[in-house]
């Protein structure tokens, strides 16, 4: 309980449960017999566990929120990347068409071989 | 009396029985536990935290039994435990939901990151492929005959001839500027060679582009040398020696920028180049070749500037808009020179450039109006 009370950030979540635990401990102290005192202590312990698990739930919710924000950022990046891929595909298409036209021109030009000299392959384009 | 005693006896027994058999008072905690059990959050707990729910339910049932036994104190303690247990079941439900959300988000994030990595790799591959294709296209383009080579030899020769004419005119104007600054000998030699070049151009004898380029360079050299000589003469000769030799003391030439500013203030729209500061006048002649009123006024204004700055000799250049007007240029320039002389300008030279230095290509609709102009160059003695 002391550990939970020391966590000021979680007080909004654990405060009510800890209050309940403290009240039951007080009732246990004033109980007329040991069996009753033990029962109230057990209830107090149960409330302390409630406080502990509420803090864990809060931490898990914060972690989930952070991950959902990350998901949202990655989704934005995905949209951008899809657009970039489409542009790259269009660029490849245009380049292919230009190359085909140029090769056709070269084939038609007198004194030129149909196959232009091979350009060095840029890194990463060999598949 | 006996009957009355018996009645009181029955009543007492009934009262004793009623009081003795009455159930213990129901603790508030038990009512709270019952309410907690039926709350939606605890109903959810049956799914999300079944063990915690079962434990709470067991405690509640035990509390009910204790109450039935008449042990209200134990019933209350157990009800308190049941309350806490229901709350615990609720907290565990919240935790389980949050964990579920976290795990789902983690899984989704991992999946999306994988898709993103695939897309980025695809983009990289495509970019590399596009770059490779573009490179091949560049090489293919380079292997094609250049567009310039598509022109016929005659067209190329004509273009080179036009360029040679323009260079020859530039050279002549530079040499004339040098002569106006006192470089008579060097300028005269190059001007003589320019005359020969003009003859060759007229006779259309071969490609003279290289010669025209060289002569332009020589004229520019002569102009620079003339400026240099003037600067050296001014710094090395004392005013006394000049006076003894019968020369007027040379004035410090005002920077060309100053003249440019002065002409700008007069609204003349001047420009600067290697020769000096020039002003263009348009529409200065009548149809008969005499100066019109606007022309006279413009020349008067320029003459005032020239007289105020005699260090800047004046070079007048006539540019025509058509071949017909080019033929009349010589006579028009004579009219201008005479007018300037009458206005008191001492150092004036003139040249008819014809159509060799157009501002706009002749195909343009306003080419004639823009190209036909009288250019007055204030030759800068120093730059």
Give keywords:
heterodimer, A: 127 residues, mainly alpha, 3 helices, B: 383 residues, alpha+beta, 5-stranded mixed beta sheet, 13 helices, 5 strands, elongated
Structure overview:
- The complex is a heterodimer of chains A (127) and B (383).
- In chain A, 24% of the residues are buried.
- The C terminus of chain A is likely disordered.
- In chain A, helix 2 packs antiparallel against helix 3.
- Chain A contains three helices and no strands.
- Chain A is mostly helical and 127 residues long.
- Chain A is rod-shaped.
- With 383 residues, chain B is α+β, with helices and mostly antiparallel strands.
- About 3% of the residues of chain B have low confidence.
- Classes of the chains: A mainly alpha (127), B alpha+beta (383).
- At the A-B interface, helix 2 and helix 3 of A face helix 5 of B.
Instruction: State which percent range the strand residues of chain A make up.
Output: under 5%
Q: What is the residue-averaged pLDDT of chain B?
A: 84
Strand order of the largest sheet of chain B: 1-2-5-3-4
- The total of beta strands of chain B comes to 5
What is the first-to-last residue Cα distance of chain B? Answer: 155 Å
Oligomer: heterodimer
Number of strands of chain A: 0
How much β-strand is present in the residues of chain B? 5-15%
Give the CA-based shape of chain B. elongated
Structural class of chain A: mainly alpha
Shape of chain A: rod-shaped
- Mean pLDDT across all amino acids of chain A: 84
Q: Report on the biggest sheet of chain A.
A: none
State the major sheet of chain B: 5 strands, mixed
| Residue runs with pLDDT of under 50 for 5 or more positions of chain A | 122-127
Biggest interface in this structure?
A-B, 62 and 53 residues
* Rg result of chain B: 55 Å
Helix and strand succession of chain B?
A: HHHHHHHHHHEEHEHEHE
Low-confidence stretches of chain B: 11-21
């Amino acid at each position: 309980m002391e550990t939970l009370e020391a966590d000021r950030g979680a007080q909004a979540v654990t405060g009510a449960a800890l209050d309940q635990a403290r009240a039951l401990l007080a009732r246990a102290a004033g109980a007329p017999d040991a069996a009753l005192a033990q029962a109230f202590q057990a209830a107090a312990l149960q409330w302390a566990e409630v406080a502990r698990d509420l803090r864990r739930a809060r931490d898990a919710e914060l972690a989930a929120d952070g991950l959902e924000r990350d998901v949202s950022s990655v989704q934005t990046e995905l949209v951008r990347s899809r657009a970039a891929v489409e542009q790259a595909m269009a660029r490849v298409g245009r380049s292919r068409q230009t190359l085909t036209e140029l090769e056709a021109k070269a084939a038609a030009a007198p004194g030129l071989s149909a196959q232009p000299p091979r350009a060095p392959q840029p890194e990463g384009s060999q598949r | 009396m006996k009957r009355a005693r018996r009645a009181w006896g029955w009543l007492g027994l009934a009262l004793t029985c009623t009081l003795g058999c009455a159930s213990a008072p129901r603790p508030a905690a038990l009512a709270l536990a019952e309410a907690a059990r039926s709350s939606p959050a605890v109903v959810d707990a049956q799914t999300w935290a079944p063990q915690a729910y079962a434990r709470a339910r067991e405690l509640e049932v035990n509390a009910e039994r204790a109450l039935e036994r008449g042990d209200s104190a134990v019933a209350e303690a157990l009800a308190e435990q049941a309350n806490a247990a229901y709350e615990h079941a609720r907290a565990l439900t919240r935790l389980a939901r949050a964990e579920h959300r976290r795990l789902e988000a983690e899984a989704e994030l991992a999946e999306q990151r994988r898709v993103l990595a695939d897309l980025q790799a695809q983009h990289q591959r495509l970019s590399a492929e596009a770059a490779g294709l573009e490179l091949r296209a560049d090489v293919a383009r380079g292997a094609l005959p250049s567009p310039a080579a598509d022109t016929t030899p005659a067209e190329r020769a004509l273009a080179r001839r036009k360029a040679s004419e323009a260079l020859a005119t530039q050279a002549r104007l530079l040499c004339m500027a040098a002569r106006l600054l006192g470089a008579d000998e060097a300028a005269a030699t190059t001007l003589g060679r320019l005359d020969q070049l003009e003859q060759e151009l007229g006779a259309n004898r071969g490609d003279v582009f290289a010669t025209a380029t060289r002569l332009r360079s020589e004229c520019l050299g002569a102009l620079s040398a003339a400026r240099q000589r003037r600067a050296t003469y001014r710094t090395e000769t004392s005013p006394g020696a000049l006076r003894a030799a019968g020369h007027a003391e040379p004035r410090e030439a005002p920077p060309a920028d100053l003249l440019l500013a002065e002409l700008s203030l007069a609204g003349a729209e001047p420009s600067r180049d290697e020769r000096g500061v020039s002003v263009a006048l348009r529409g200065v002649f009548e149809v008969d070749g005499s100066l019109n009123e606007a022309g006279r006024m413009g020349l008067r204004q320029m003459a005032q500037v020239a007289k105020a700055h005699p260090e800047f000799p004046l070079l007048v250049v006539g540019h025509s808009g058509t071949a017909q007007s080019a033929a009349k240029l010589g006579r028009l320039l004579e009219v201008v020179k005479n007018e300037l002389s009458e206005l008191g300008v001492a150092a004036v030279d003139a040249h008819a450039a014809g159509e060799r230095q157009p501002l706009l290509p002749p195909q343009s609709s306003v080419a004639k109006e823009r190209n036909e102009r009288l250019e007055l160059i204030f030759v800068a003695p120093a730059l």
